[in-house]
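I hope you will forgive my troubling you with a question about protein structure. I am sending you one protein, given as its amino acid sequence and as whole-number tokens for its backbone shapes. Thank you for your consideration; the sequence and its tokens are set out here:
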Amino acid sequence: MAAPERTWVPIEPGFFTIPSDRKETPRLLGSRCAACGEVFFPRRPICARCLGRETVDVPLGPRGTLYTWTYTHFPLFGSRRADAGGYGVGQVDLPEGPRVQAVLSGGPGAFRIGMEMELELEVLRENSKGEEVVIFRFRPVVEPGGAK
């Protein structure tokens, strides 16, 4: 009998969804200005483009295009990961408009500028309540048949 899944909690509330079914794809949480239509991540109450004071919450992603990336050979802060020797960091352009900086899933040879990326959640650590604290990250999209 499999152990029950632990509760996932976001490292910081309000940045992404945690689907009740872990097979579903999470979404980033952004905002759209009601006056000019500009979309932002993370959410914001005032538009940085036109200073409009009416924004509405919108789900973003879950896919985007890798704009740029780098790989750091240093453990991810606070991580319990076995591959704590390094991680990718990149900027992903979302179809809704924002460019998001995020941790990337994969080794230094896994990325190329312009590739399609998909949002996922990663367990970073366990908190004092026994819940798993998660962050969002992007991974290369693998199409059916294994092509990236």
